[in-house]
Amino acid sequence: MERDEHAQPVDVGLVGAGPWAATMHGPVLAAGPQTRLAAVWSRRPEATAHLAARLGAHAATSYEELLDRCEAVAFAVPPDAQADLAPRAARAGKALLLEKPLALDLDAARALADTVAECGVVTQLVLTKRYHHSTRAFLAAAAKFTSAGARARYLHGAFLDGAMATGWRLTRGALYDLGPHLLDLADAALGPIEELRAYGDSRRWIELTCAHRGGAISQLSLSGAVGLASSQAGIDLYGPAGELTLDFGPVDHRECWPVLRAEFAAAVRSGVPHDLDVRRGLMLQELLARVSAPHGGR
Hints:
The chain is α/β, with parallel strands linked by helices. It folds into 2 domains: about 5-130 and about 255-285, NAD(P)-binding Rossmann-like Domain (Rossmann fold, 3-Layer(aba) Sandwich); about 135-250, 2-Layer Sandwich (Dihydrodipicolinate Reductase, domain 2). About 40% of the residues lie in helices and about 25% in strands. The protein has helices at about 20-30, 45-55, 65-70, 80-90, 105-120, 135-140, 165-190, 255-270, 280-290; strands spanning about 10-15, 35-40, 60, 70-75, 95-100, 125, 150-155, 195-200, 205-210, 215-225, 230-240, 240-245. Helix 4 packs parallel to helix 5, helix 5 packs antiparallel against helix 9 and helix 7 (about 165-190) packs across helix 9. The relative contact order is 0.15.
């Protein structure tokens, strides 16, 4: 009997062995059935070996070895490391499951997107909220809702202490880690963002004011440094018909991950680009760069 290639799980190599790799990428990809975690590699051999053993995957001793063992690569590393490593995987013909932001600077993000286009590989972004049924229902309703404006927030205290209070998140986390979620949702719900102004400090609190094509205005509040008992996150649209609300603070991310995994595997097997691919990531990176520019993008 001829083997049905589309029914075979996609062999994925995981780059990274930190908290996000250990709690999300690794377990989700290992759970299948659409994917199989073929190998793990990070720059910390002990962490690599521990995570690989826990998930029943091969512990690669080099990035090249990981690439040899997989057909797709998932990245759970800081943005600057992703921007360095992902183009090498694309040149090796591997599909890419990318984190946001793509990089810490626009030039590196553009270089990654250019390499992907050159090599013609499938890409997909881990914009977690987009894979939840409530977000998809909200965006479907937003397409029929006339919006005058919107308010959105993503507020928590995870950058004050704990596993996420490290490295780039301490200085850029509110904007570069939380910002892509709200910018993506505001852009998807109200139309393309044409003007952007920013106020505040990404280490404490930052406010983004967006002018959308068609005239709607959105206000986005971001902070990872406020002591809250639980995350406050969501977006509210306002218009002549009233209000349309998405509250993703209480959303269980475990409901998003099987959808993300299935859609990534389907994109890899079909070769059809996912809607949330590197091009979407580059658009968000361009918005982040405008915020980071002198005078906060004004």
